[in-house]
Design brief:
Strand content: 25-35%
Radius of gyration: 27 Å
Strand order of the largest sheet: 3-2-1-4-11-12
Largest sheet: 6 strands, mixed
Structural class: alpha+beta
Helix content: 25-40%
Distance between the termini: 56 Å
Shape: globular
Length: 709
């Protein structure tokens, strides 16, 4: 019997550190453990990480050498900023003449507010000539004497001319402090925003370096040979060395771990992920098989940090109901956890005897309209989880399931006060809570132009059952709770791919420049341990901002998954037909590869042109891509460049907005190469040729083209 190696994901939360072991071949969950997060240990959170790993290996009967992949996600960087626990930054501005005025203004970054009444600790020094090594050293030494614990060099236009910042870093190295240059953190224009991003990165650098060294040494001592990876805020992982350079990428990575789990384990291609805890719900989007990211707001200002677009609503499984005037007036934001009250639905039946409904102010300053039960067993909170259990919306085996009869008993006093039956009271409580979530979900569906007919709601987190099932019921959207929802975040860490994003502002970018950005991103993930043969790169060219963006992803090993389930032709056809909202008899197989099948239908509408929607379904029966109107053609690698040139020529549109090439996806082997981010035909075809390189001449290629209007 062969024992597969394992992938380990560890999620360091504010209270607990969760760890999971996932079979590296089948990707099935093998074990999970929970230990208290070791904030106050002399080794900090590193101690809890190693403790969780030790217990996980013991529980699953595995040895350290069985670990094929190890990654952890941490809230340490986020907490450091929220709590104001950061290092003093020594900022060295560079420039003479007009440039000097620009950089001297950056000293005002010391006014950035970390917490109420506490600003970012920053000291500033100026050097007119970066090549004057003696002057640079004096400036660096002066900053160190003023308390600087880390140094940042910044200069106007360093994106194009980094030599000045590099010279300052070299000259200042003798001071012995950690060093970083603004152009190393982001290559986008905008001196103030670029420097602000670099300064915030530097402020958390010393603390994150210390933790990284402790974790690395502890993991090595434990006998784990696989390199340690760290969760990024955009849903991927990076090497420990990369984290040492850019720790800011770990800020906001907590929500990213959950959606990464939904993306990889649940394999959703279009939908909304809701990670519900006790107090709040984090809402994020998966569109066309990718997480939605945007430049994050940090310390109240826009940064150049690409992070998951997550929107938080103050409603969770522990959110308490509020009443007034004989009706439910709201739910939350106060939760039973923060109020220090037990959930009524988890009480013993005898403890709810003689229950009397009353309203309280759970914490100083809260309104006095939160409903609680005073009963034989003490005071209990009436929560979203209580209502979900009363309605039977919490599935068997779920982390939040309680005895339904106890939950109904807990809701009975509320129902009496409202003058309705218990089921109606529970529904009204859930309506009030999910209404807040639904408003944000509707906004995100609209913002990202998701198709409501195919968008899926997936719930994760310990409180998933309190929000997602009811929201699906009232919204009409399809919804489900993720498997192992209570540990979806560490599962996401365990399954995450190595990711790197490279952005450049290149006015009038030609195909050679675009291919160079693509190659840089690909090389970066390979350098961090991704297997070269499995790297995928998505390139986007924004003509309005002249931004060329390449996002590369890859696994640290080429996974040959021997999943127990493979969907047969009939199952895949039914899945496609359901998504296309038509009968299977009206669905046609348009093309296919061993990994994917392309299904299409023809939709005729009165007074409108005929549409040809397409669904691409993988071997597991999961829809990997939705296209509302597409043209599909099959060819071979040898003929593909000529065929693609013809197809692009025939489907390129011209108008006041300029030239708009079609959105192209290529099915190659087990991959879907997404080239839809490029509007110019020539770079698009150059990227297509780069995808075809090194493939056999007779290998089939399926082109799916979506005409842009």
């Amino acid at each position: 019997m062969t024992t597969h190696r394992i992938r380990v994901g560890i999620d360091v939360g504010g209270t607990f550190t969760d760890a999971v072991a996932v079979d590296a071949t089948t990707l099935e969950l093998l074990g999970q453990v929970k230990v208290p997060t070791s904030h106050h240990h002399e080794d900090g959170v590193a101690h809890g990480i190693v403790e969780a790993l030790d217990r996980l290996l013991e529980e699953t009967g595995r040895a350290p050498e069985d670990v094929a992949f190890l990654a952890h996600g941490t809230t340490q960087a986020t907490n450091a900023l929220l709590e104001g626990d950061v290092a003093t930054v020594g900022l060295i501005g560079i420039g003479g003449g007009p440039s000097a005025a620009l950089t001297r203004r950056l000293a005002a970054l010391g006014r950035l507010e970390l917490t109420p009444g506490k600003t970012l600790p920053l000291v500033y020094a100026h050097v007119p000539d970066p090549d004057d090594a003696a002057s640079v050293r004096r400036a660096a030494e002066a900053l160190a004497q003023d308390g600087a614990q880390v140094l940042v060099a910044t200069e106007p236009f360093s994106v194009d001319r980094p030599e000045g910042e590099q010279a300052v870093m070299e000259a200042a190295r003798s001071v012995g402090l950690p060093l970083t240059a603004a152009h190393e953190i982001t290559s986008l224009y905008g001196l103030h925003k670029r420097t602000r991003t670099a300064v915030v990165n530097a402020a958390i650098l010393p603390r994150m370096l210390a933790t990284a060294d402790l974790v690395d040494a502890s993991i090595t001592k434990a006998g784990v040979g696989s390199p340690l990876m760290v969760m990024r805020c955009d849903g991927g992982v990076m090497s420990l060395d990369e984290m040492r350079r850019r720790p800011l990428l770990t800020v906001l990575s907590g929500p990213a771990a959950g959606v990464a789990g939904a993306l990889m384990q649940e394999r959703i291609s279009e939908g909304v992920f809701l990670e519900t805890g006790g107090t709040s719900t984090d809402i994020s989007v998966v569109r066309r098989g990718k997480v939605a990211v945007r430049h994050a707001t940090i310390l109240g200002r826009k940064s150049y940090l690409n992070a998951l677009d997550v929107r938080t609503v103050g409603v969770g499984g522990g959110s308490m109901v509020r009443i007034g005037g004989g009706k439910v007036t709201g739910v939350g934001p106060r939760s039973a956890h923060i109020a220090g009250l037990p959930y009524a639905c988890f009480a013993a039946a005898k403890d709810l005897r003689d229950a009397r409904l009353t309203t309280v102010s759970p914490m100083a300053g809260d309104p006095e309209d939160y409903a609680v039960l005073d009963a034989a067993g003490g005071r209990f909170a009436i929560t979203m989880t209580c209502a979900a259990n009363a309605l039977g919306r919490v599935p068997e085996g779920d982390f939040a399931r309680s005895d339904q009869e106890v939950a109904r008993a807990a809701l009975a006093p509320l129902a009496a006060a409202l003058g309705v039956d218990t089921a109606t009271a529970a529904a009204r409580l859930l309506d009030a809570g999910t209404a807040q979530v639904e408003a944000v979900v509707d906004t995100m569906i609209r913002d990202y132009r998701l198709d409501k007919d195919t968008a899926l709601l997936v719930g994760g987190g310990g409180g998933a059952a309190s929000v997602t099932p009811h929201l699906a019921a009232v919204s009409g959207l399809e919804g489900r709770i993720a498997r192992h929802s209570e540990v979806i975040s560490p599962i996401g860490v365990a399954l995450a791919l190595v990711r790197e994003q490279v952005e450049r502002i290149i006015p009038g970018a030609g195909q050679e420049q675009i291919l160079a950005v693509r190659a840089e991103a690909e090389a970066a993930v390979i350098a961090q341990g991704a297997a070269a043969d499995g790297v995928e790169v998505e390139v986007t060219v924004d003509p309005q901002t002249s931004t060329v963006r390449a996002v590369a992803t890859g696994a640290t090993e080429l996974r040959t998954q021997d999943r127990a389930h493979r969907a047969d032709e009939a199952e895949r056809l039914r899945t496609a037909a359901a998504s296309l909202r038509t009968d299977p008899s009206r669905v046609t197989v348009l093309a296919g590869t061993p990994a994917h099948t392309v299904y299409g239908a023809e939709i005729r509408r009165p007074l409108r042109t005929t549409r040809h929607p397409v669904r691409i379904v993988d071997a597991d029966g999961v829809i990997r891509l939705h296209v509302s109107d597409a043209r599909v053609e099959t060819t071979r690698v040898a003929e593909a460049p000529e065929v693609l040139a013809r197809l692009v020529r025939e489907t390129t549109s011209y108008g006041d907005g300029g030239v708009r090439a079609p959105a192209v996806r290529l099915l190659l082997g087990s991959r879907i190469a997404d080239l839809s981010g490029v509007l110019d035909p020539q770079p698009l075809l150059a990227l297509a040729r780069s995808e075809l390189d090194a493939r056999g001449a007779d290998e089939p290629v399926v082109a799916v083209l979506e005409v842009r209007i």
